[in-house]
Design a protein that fits this description.
Number of helices: 8
Pfam families: ABC_tran (PF00005)
Helix content: 10-25%
Radius of gyration: 24 Å
GO cellular component, one term: ATP-binding cassette (ABC) transporter complex, substrate-binding subunit-containing
Keywords: ATP-binding, Nucleotide-binding
Number of strands: 19
CATH class of the largest domain: Alpha Beta
Strand content: 25-35%
Protein name: ABC transporter domain-containing protein
CATH architecture of the largest domain: 3-Layer(aba) Sandwich
Organism: Rothia aerolata
Largest sheet: 6 strands, mixed
Length: 340
Amino acid sequence: MAESGLVIENLSKRFSQRGETVDVLRSLNLALAPGELVTVIGASGAGKTTLLKAIAGLEKSDAGSITFAGQPLKRGQVSYIFQKPILYPHLTARENILFGTRLRGFTQELDRDLLDYLLDILQLHDLQNRKPAQLSGGQAQRVGIARALIRKAPVVLFDEPLSSVDEELSATIRTEIQQLHTDLGFLGFYITHDQNEALQLGQRVAVLAHGVFEQVGSPAEILQRPASLSVARLTGYPALSEVETKEGTVAVRATALSRGEAENRSDVVLRESRLTLGGLLCAGELAADTFWTARGGVRVRLSAGTVLRWLENPTAEATPAEHYEVGIKAADVHLFTETP
């Protein structure tokens, strides 16, 4: 990894809670290339915001280092986009965007072309004279994004900026963020608990759990080869089934996908997006009230009662309430063993 990027090395952070020491971050290591956008996904309490604040210099780490271009990262090199935009109520949207450029220490000349570009991409041209009270939640967050980017900081941190925005608007703003990143080329570090955000925005995705990165890879790698059960759950694998193991042989109760007696227990994750009509793995029927949508997919109810979602548009005609054989390729089934 080039030295000109952001390097997190052996970063650790502990907190004391009720007399006990809790390791929130445990010797984290991650290197980001210049201009790369990395998303970090994790459940609530995984340490995502603590990590972001440590990078921004808002939280002192107990060990480790954070460097940019081979030198300790400075606050002036970082822009921070908060979960909820902190706007000055007496200033207009335009004045809020420009506020950081008028502070002592900002020595660059205002780039008016950049300002016009941000107003255009973030759909703020007609809103720039409004006060925050006159803006919707999504509009206010767009103002916060523009305010962070107008400073031209080389590192931009996103602290779950879309967590309070409805899904339709979130999808629109995600597209805008992608366009901003492509055009401006900043190094982005984006934390979220939403797999849609993580997989759509990240050129790489880092899965944070229990204070460590359980897996770092491209969205395709994370989806196709999850390193652990927690990674699979965080990135959108809702269907889990048990298998039987006897003398090293794994037997899947494939036609039923129901619970059976077993000497050992393991979790199997089925990539539901890869369901196909045909194949002899299991039998089921399409739910009577189902229809295909880009988000919800087609629901298939198996004979044993298990319901799977078929996330891709079927290539063959499929009629609700009709019975079909459903196949799942072996490459799209992931086995995770648990140590007793």
